[in-house]
Structures are given as structure tokens and as C-alpha cells.
Queue: 2 jobs
Job 1
Amino acid sequence: MSIPPQSQAPSRAKASFLAPLRAAPATVPALVAVALLVVWATNQAGYPLTHWAPGGLFVLALLAIALSSIPLRLGEIPVLVRIALGCLAAYTALSFLSILWAGVPGDAWEGANRTLLYLLVFALFALWPQRGGSAALLLVAWVLAMIGLAAFVALHVNAAAGGPARLASLLPGGRLVYPSGYANANAAEWLMAFWPALLLAREARLHWSVRGLLAGGAVLLAGVALLSVSRGSLYATPVMLVLVFALLPGRVRTFALLVPVAAGIAAFAPSVLRVGELLESGRNAEAAVHAATTATLLAALVVGLAVALGAAIEQRRSFSASTARRVHRGVVVLAVLALVAILAGGVVAAGNPVRRVEHGWHTFKVGYGANSKSGNRLVSGLGSNRYDFYRVALDEFLHHPLLGIGADNFQQQYLAHGRSEETPHYPHSVELRTLAETGLIGALLALAGLGAALLAAARGLRGPDQLGRAVVAAALAGFAYWVVHGSFDWFWEFAGLGAPAFALLGLSCGLAPRAAETSSASGRQRSAGLRRLTIGACACAALLAALSLTAPWLSQLEVQSAARVWTKSPQTAYARLNDAASLNPLSDEPYLVAGSIALRFGDLVRANHEFALALGRTPGDAYATLERGAIASTQNDRGEALQLLERAARLNPRDPLTRQALKLTREGKRVSIEELNSSILHNAQQLE
């Protein structure tokens, strides 16, 4: 008996969904990893160790399951992908080795573990071959999830507009920090998904409804990103436009789609920027928030419907070759006219380009004080302390050119050699981070690994599968945005940004053409022996990786637990901090927290002991040295106090509290522990 067509429809839909998974079974663990990336995006962009370390274990488990259940022959992996994996693995190993010469070994271990996480993510997405359909499923799933999250954030901000305090917590200083906690990372989170959404929406092989969702979603992503008022994203955008049009195929289709998307963004941009200006000046922004949210959602809806309509017409009607050529020529002419108009408008808006560049360089060197106090933050100037961050990072590279100062070991050097009042943990540039912390050897390994991966992806751009080529282009654009914007910000340290970037790069490598492996019987025997050896080596490496990720994670959980209970049960807190110190034998944080707790209870003997233990692990810790000096002063040990406080002043010469404590001690006066720590606590709260 024949099955009615109505009953066949669900079966066809199920088959069409499962077909990509059967063609590329590695898509299943990769989809699970995509879900993890989205979870990270919902909370602090995966920055805390307690977020990304268990996630790293999860990715490691997915990779182990994939290796054990999905056939993989070394000879079938493209040579360029193997080179990329080898170089990135060597860079990860160097990061771990840097613990040996790092001034803060606990931070170096954390930095090496984060690098390990990115290696695992890249391997999961790059090792197995992908098809156009399976890769599109992965990329579209991630982009649509980010669009959904952006819609939630927009509605959440709109709902918070009725409460000034709540709105101020989401947009401190007029810049949206929710959900990442850092405005620039917030903007990058959305714009990393914006570029794949834009480039996938132009692909004719995707269903017209999906293309409409992606185009409208691109508008929404840009709108939520604009709420963060990130100058870095503003300057990264023209660089991305040049890269997309210069290096990626399908320029005419890209421009044709960019026109409605850009029009939608332009329609709501003034109202969105108005929100930041009102909040920054302390004025009521409730009406402005409602107007900006409504305009953004409406523009996304209109652009999505327009693109969906155009895509439906394109898919259901076939045009003659002559008509297609006329449309192509018309779009090219429009693109040239738009480029001329943009350049002319840019010259008019910027004024004298030479003076504009000079002003930008001046504000960049001088710092925040050189920025214009009037107008929007995006065009106020380039003033920040990054010039000083970069100066110190380059100096450290010049002093440690081969191997660097150790992963994530920038802060201690900046405290000693910086000129600003900031205390950055990281250099705010992925390139300078690599040079300063892992030296020339690390930079060459990273450059070789990323270069090989990009070359492999470039081959995917020339592959036979049209949908696969579109996915490669879109994924590379997302990765490129992370690199461009991350060149002047600290995005490497956000797992919710770095992990998706390496997943996108790995996905592009998964679409690189692969040759079937052929071998003789003797060759197969050698391959079997090599496979057993490889399995054994991978099992040992996986065990070490699991231990490396687990120990600092559990240690940090103990520190957080102690911080919650110390006011009611200090002895329980001390016990948990001792456990934390045992779990992470490199970190000084458990001892620093224990010493601070002891000071709050007036137990100077215990506090001095805990700070001494911290200095045993990190001899250059300025805070522990300052506290021990203050304790010695309180106990009338003037000689010890002078020695310790002079050292603290050398470690952190710009700290006014250290200078004041040293001045009092030199004058023969005692340092008040209570006043010192009250001031330290006040300063810490001011930075939050």
C-alpha cells in the first residue's frame, strides 16, 4: 500500500537533516561543542577559569570519543592541516615549558591550559573531513544561536530601562557590558557572528527562509554590538570590508546583500548611539532605550523579510544569461558609486586626513586625557593606555627575545615598568602577547601553525562543493574578525571568543580537499603498528591534559568556597585554602587569600606566614611584599619593614599606598594595617 504524501513529509525532513551527519559523522561531537561555545557566550564570555577549564575537559572528552569511534587515517589528513596541528601543539608545549622561567608560574600554567583548550577545539573541527551540508549545519547553528542570544540581550536591556540602577549595571558609562562583563569583548562576541551571518545569507543553496533569518540576524547582531560603543570594532570594520572584498570570492553577491544590511544598520544607529551618550552624561535614557530597541528589532525584521523575499524569487525563478549579466553589471556600477560616495563622505566627515591621523596618533600616545570631551566616544580619539601597554610588551620581548617572559606573565612586568595607573594582566594585543610571553620561537610556531591552517582553508575556497566554499568564506571571516579586533585588545583570554575563533578556523580546514589513502599490505601493517603507537601516545597526552585542566579548576573552586564562608567560619576557609594550595602547587592565590583573611581577624602572625608562603611561590608579588612590610612595621621591626617596603616599591613603583607606607617607615612611624587594607579595598572596589 502506498504511503500518503502527508506521511512522507516528516520522513523526508528527517532524512534531509540526518544526511549531513551520516556523510560527516564528526559533525555530531562538533555540534555538541557548538552548544558549549554558546553557553560560554551567555556568561562572561567564558573568561573565568571555573567556566573554561571544565569546558576544556568536555572538549577533550568529545575529541577522545571522536578519535575512538570515527575512522581517521593520518595519511588522509591534508599535509597543511597536519603542519598546523603540529605547530600549534608545539606552541602549546612551549607555553607549558614557560612555567619554568615565568615570574608567576601559576599564571603561566593557566595561560598554557587556555592555549591547550584552543588546540583541542581546533583539532575537533579540523581533523575529520566535512561536507558542505554538514559544515553549513554547524556554522548556521552557531550563528542562529548567537542571533537568538542577541535578541534576548536586546529585550533584556529594554526591560531594564524602567529601572535606572539596573540599566546602569548593564551599561556602565553608557556601554553595554552584558553578558561578557567587558564592553569590547561584548562587541566582538556579536560581530564574530555578524560576518558569517552576512556571508552565508548570500548563498543561493541555502533555503530562502534561512537566508532571511541570517540577514535580519546580521542587522540585529550589529545593533547589539553598537550598544557597547567599541572603538575597536569601529576600526576593525573597514579592515574587515577590505579583507572580505579583496580575498573572498562572490564580491558582487556580497555587495548586493551588504546594501540592505547596511541600510538597516544606518536606520537605527543614531538612536542606539544616543543611549550611550545619555547614560554617559548621567541623564535619563528610558525612552531612548525603548526607541533604540524598537528601531533595531524593526530594522532586523524588515531587512530579514526583504532578503527572504529576494532569495525566494531567486530560487523559484531562473533568469536568462543576458539578464544575469545585466544585473551583475548594474550591481558593479552601484558598488563603484557607493565606494566613491563612502570615500567622499569619509573625507568630508574626517576633515584634513593628515591632521586626522596626527590627532589620532597624539591621542593614542598621550592616553585618555587627550580624547575629546564632547561628542560620541567612537570619534573622540584613540586615547587609552594601550600605547604604554605595547611599549612595555615590546621592551619585554627585546629583553627576552627567544622564549619570552612566560604565558600570561605580563602584569608583574607592567607594574614594574609601566607609566599609567592601570594594572593590566595582558598586553591587549594577540600579536604582542605572543611575542612578549613566548618570544620569537613562540611567534614563529604560532605563525607557522595559523599560516598552514589558512592555506588549507584557502584550498577549501577552491573546492568543488559550492556550499562548502561558502561555508569556508564565512568561517574565515569570523576568524579574521577575532584576529583583527584582537590585535588591539585582550581577546585571547576570553574562551568565549578564542574557542569559537579556532572552531571556525578548524571548520575551514575540515573542508580542505582530501585524497584517499592507498597502501600496500606491508604498508597497512606498518600503519597498524603506527596507529597503535599513536593511540598509546594520545592516551597518555589526554591523561596529562585532563590532569592539567582539572587541578587548577578544583583549586579555584576551593578558593571561591573559602571566600564565601570566611566571615562565619574562618577555620573552614583556611582548610579549604590549604586544599586549594595542594591542588595547584604553582599558584600563590590561596596563600594571598588566607593572609588577607588573617589580617581581617587581626591575626598578624598567621597573615605574615601566609604571605611568606605566597612569596615562596611568586617572589615578585608586590601585594604580599607590601603586606609583610606593613606587618613588620606594626611589630616594630623597622629594619625588616624597610627592606620589604623598599622591595615592594621597586616591584610597584607607582602605587601611592606603597610609597606612603615606605615614607612613614623611613620617618620612624608605624604603618596602620587597618588603614592600609581599607585603602586597598577601596581602590579595588573603584576598579570594579
Job 2
Amino acid sequence: MKKTLLLIGIFIVVFIMFPSASAVFTSSHELSGTLSKDTNAFFIGKTEISGTFTGFPIEQLINSSILHDMGGFPLIGACSITNLDTVIVAEDINITNANSLEELFFQYFDHITQYSDVDITTDAGLFLLGINQGRLNVSSNLNYAVTTFIPLEIIPDTTTRFFLMVTNNPFAMRCKGDFAVLTTLSNTGTIKVKDRHGATLWSSTSPNNYLIIQNKEFSVTKHPPLSLLPLNSLASTVPLKLSISPADPPDIEITQLIENVSVALDNFGEGTTSEFINNINEFVTLIQATSLVANGAMVFLQTNDTVTIDHTMQQFTSVGFARFNTLGITYVDSSSGPMLQANCTLISLGNHFYIPQAKRTSDGIVFPYELFIIWILALCVFVYVRFFLKPPVDIKKDEIIKRYAVFFHIVVLIISFILLDSEINSLFGISAFTLLFFQGFSAITGAFILLELIIWVLGYFILAIPLQLIVYSAFRLLGIRKGGNGIRKAIGDLSIWVFCGLYILLFINIVFSLVHMNSFFPMG
């Protein structure tokens, strides 16, 4: 009776020590807050976008009375403007010499050609679409996209804040206004006017040629990979909203996406500012650097923003990173910056990872007293059973269990490592097995294998050993000694997975507190 009560007591205490184990493995954290406009942030995943854009004042780029009431929208690379009733092409003109369309047509009557029932296509380079007293409406779902809010110098010596998208999906926009004007801003851009059968009626690369679209409403399809939409603080009927979630793995083609962006940038040619190109290139570099975990994620650079996580105030330190299940971005055009609302699975505040048990500390570190208690319990039980109780061994029962214990241990060992790898993948979006499957063996794959082996060793010494001592003592109470070794080791292996789920971020925070990562990777 004494042995039975002691055995029951041991297991009750062990299970009490981990009341939140199942919650930790499936836990998520509610993050909300407003990003300052100085924060460089970009967001990766399946993206749903809706809203209205009014453009930047086009007269800042082209000094013309005709364009005085126009909002400008840059178009990068291939675009299609379809089902147009009337397009007027004005070739080799100086648009600054005329005060109205009527005066322009009269002054350059021999440079004017009118086309009906046509489509317009652009290819390579940078173009400018101006909409007179109008707006551009967006409502689209992108399977995988990288988005950001970025200041660009598309106008020399003038910084304009843009919403930038990189995606492999076509992007549809709806334009409304009195009329629209299209021209090229680079010497590599080609504009074509085609009939409804696809035959080219007119083609040009000259920035002195202008196409006047007389439809009051028409559609623009922006083809991959780059899209730019100017932001401003003017009141909008439909403010920009973003809803982002992890993309389906087959839709993620990050290598092809980066190659497409590089080709698009190479095709810009002259006519665009070097600052504009540099900013885009820096953005592409960031995409490459985070491509391994770039799905359902957001990255912050040069930030000291304060956000709310699980009802507590937390501050980013220079950089930040979060993986999320869902992310909503609103009030993008607000003067105070965009507002975020996310359900996150992993949050890095720059100098440490956020963990609930240490959310009120500045370094994300809290002493794991429960591990200390488990060690004391394990040692006490082991010493008491091994040296004081000295229960007899049931040889027959010991031999029966021994036959199956080795196979049980092998199976559980494999399962435990798979579970540990899955936990790493759930946290960071990448793991040793996923890298081996998608990339084969590489330096990065080797680094993740080493990481998981280190976690395994830590888990063994910190949690597996005391639990094995407890299991050994329990088997001795049941009259089993060597026969239970396989089961004892199997339970120790499973405890390593538990250790990973419960404590891996805590121990990473301890490493961060000892080694200042910014000295190795200065990012802001």
C-alpha cells in the first residue's frame, strides 16, 4: 500500500509541474499597436488588400497646367489597360506649353492620332499614370506577397511615402476620373496601343509622347513583380486595409520573385533617381535575408515602437520580428502611422523573444523554479527508493518488459525528434527536416541540425535526466529494474520535446543576454 501511494504521489507531482504544457505548444499572443512612420517594416504572406488611392500631385514632377488637378501613380514594368473607348496619342510634344487639352490639341494638331476600341500595354521601365480629379480603387487577393510602406525619391529632391508590393500575382486596379494621361519616365519603357485582336497600332519609348485616355472609368492590371501606390494624409472614402496570413507553401516562390524584381530594376534605365533605385534594392536585400522564415511574418528595422502584447506594454529595441496566424493593418494613411492587430506565434522584441512567463521583465528571462523543484523531487525519490526502500525485483516481469522496451525506445526516439523538429518549425517557420526536404544538405541545413542537437543535449541534461530518475524509481516500486530501461529512456526522449516547447525561447533569451547580437548583426 505504501508503494502504491508513493507511486501515485510521484505522478501527481510531475503532472502538476506542467499544467500549461499543452497550452504552450498551441499558444498565440495578441499584438496591437501603431507603428511610427520612421519604422521600416515589411510584411510577408497571403495578402488581401482593399482601399482607395488619390495619388501624389503630378505637377511636382511635370510642370504643366493640364496636369494641375491630377493625381500621379507610378507603374513599374508590364501593365495592361484594357477595353478603352478612345485613346488620343500626342507624339513629340512639350506638354508644359499648353494650358488646356483644347490648346494642346490645337497647338499640336499634326502630332495627334486618335484610336478607338483599343488596349494599352507597357513593358520594362517606369511609367506615370495621371488621373484628373479622380482616384484609384484596389481590391485584390494575392497568394503570396511582400509589402511595405517606404519613402522613395521618385521626384528629385522630394520624398514621397509609398505602399510597395512585391508579388508573383497580377494586381488589378480600377481607375475613375475625368480623363487620364499615360507617359514613360525612363528611356527603356515601351508603350503600345493594340486593337482588340492584339495587333499593335502604335508603339513608342519616348518620354515626350503622351497618351490621353478619355474613359471616365477603366481597369489597370499590374503584372508582376513590383507595384507602387502613393500614400497621403488626405481623407479617403475607402482607407487602405491589409489582411495578411501565412501563404500556402506551393504559392511561395521566393527565388523566382527576387529574380523578377532584379530584372525589373535592371530595365529602369535612365530617367529615375539613383535614390529611388537604391531604396528598392535595399528592400530586395531584406527579402533575401529573411526568405527562410518569410511566410506569415513581419520584420521591423530602426524601430523603438511600443506595442501591446497580451495586455502588457512591450517595446522593440532597434529591430523586431514576428510570425503570425493573422495580421490586420489599418489607418495606413494616418499621420501617426499604420495600426497593427495580429495574432502571433513568435515575437522578437530585438534583444529578446517575448515569452508569457517573463512578459514583465525587460530581458525576457525568469528563473525556471519548476525545473529546480523537479530535480530536487527526482533526487529525493531516487535516493529514498534506491537506498532505503530497496524493493525486490520481479525477474519474470522484468524479462517480459525488457523484450519490448528496446523497440519502444527506438520508436519513441524517432517520434520525439520529429516532434522537436516540428516545434522548431512551428516557432521559426523553418527546421532541419524542412530544409533537408526542400533544399537538401547545405550550410544552413547543417546549422539547423546543429541547433536541434544542442537543444536535444540541453533538454537531456536539464529535464530528461530527472524524469528518468523518477521513472526508474517508479519501475523499482513495481519490481522492475533493467527491463524498464527502454521505457525510461523513451520517456526521457519525450521530455526533451517538452523542454523545447516550454523553455527553448527562455534559454535563447539567456544567450542573447550574454552575447549582444547587435555587435554581430548591426541593423539599426
